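Lab notes, practical 5.
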Amino acid sequence: MTEPSHTPQRQPIFSQIDVTSMVSPPESVGPDSVKQFQNDQIILQQQIISQQKQMMAQQQRQHAEMMNCMRELLDHQRRQSSMHAQMISMQSQGAQQRAMELKQWRAAHPQLSLACRSALEMLGRVQSEYYDKMVSEIDDSGTSLEYGDYMVNEFIDRFGPRLVHLNSLLQLLSQLAMPPGEEAELLDDDELFRD
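Output from the prediction step:
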């Protein structure tokens, strides 16, 4: 014969805890205890409200500080933008001034300006040939340039100053030379070929 299985009955966890005394005073106490309990509740509520007000005031101060920092940053960025705009304006005015002066010089000296353009084309070809010679010299020297200081110094002495002077001459001629579209505005066909 099988014995009946006895399963223990579960007891509720909070069955023996009296929570009513936490929110209201016990019924067995007198009116003085009830008054004391109410006063304690009022004090507790006042403390909670005071803490909430302090937290809100602290948040407002932090918010105000952050807004001040953002305003200062915005003002700084505006000043920087204004300074950049002034610098760009000054640079563009300087470039326009130089362009106008060069255009006036080319208008006053059309023959010389055209001669500078021809010289610029010729020196450009000379520069290309000189670059070819320099590259050929590097290829012929091989690794001697890589490991010998004497060879490097000789190479620089041979090609360096000429390239620097040639590049400066080309830059000067490119500024003085008349652009192809400008000669039609400044000169007639007769003036272009006048001796």
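Observations recorded by the TA: DSSP finds seven helices and no strands in the chain. Residues 99 and 160 are 31 Å apart (CA to CA).
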